[in-house]
Structures are given as C-alpha cells and as structure tokens.
Amino acid sequence: MPHNRLRRLRAEYGLTLEQVSQATGLSFSTLHAVENQERGDMRLGTAFRLAHFYGLSVAEIWQPLYDQVCEEVSQVAIPSR
Fold this sequence. Notes:
The protein is mainly alpha-helical. The chain has one domain (4-74): lambda repressor-like DNA-binding domains (434 Repressor (Amino-terminal Domain), Orthogonal Bundle). The protein contains five helices and no strands. Helix 4 (44-54) packs across helix 5 (58-74). It is elongated and about 50 Å long.
C-alpha cells in the first residue's frame, strides 16, 4: 500500500493525525483519507505539505503510488492499431 509509508512515518515520529493536521494545515479527514487510500489521487499541494513536514521530496512521497500505478498499467494489454 503506497500511503502506508506516511502512516509509518507519522508513527515513527510519535504523532497523531491531529498533530500532523495542525502542523501542515491539512484537514484531519484529508490526512486520514490519504493514509487509508480512500483517495487514490493525492493532490500536489497535499504532497508538498507532507514532504516539507517530513523532510522528504515530493518524489519520495509519490514514489510508492507511482510504482503501484506503473504495475497496474503494465498488466493492461495495449490495443493494436
């Protein structure tokens, strides 16, 4: 699961969703949805805020999701023309 990394990071820092929400300006519901993959399309602004907060690059935040999408797409046959 791509966003489990965000949950693990939060746990490593010993933070609650409420604390991350206050520090990043993101709503509790947004953070909860991102961590639980209820939103597969994390917004760029959300990724920027989380990357800055955790000291990561946006690419590091999105890499697991990118890998998952690539795997899913590679399983689909490309139609012939």
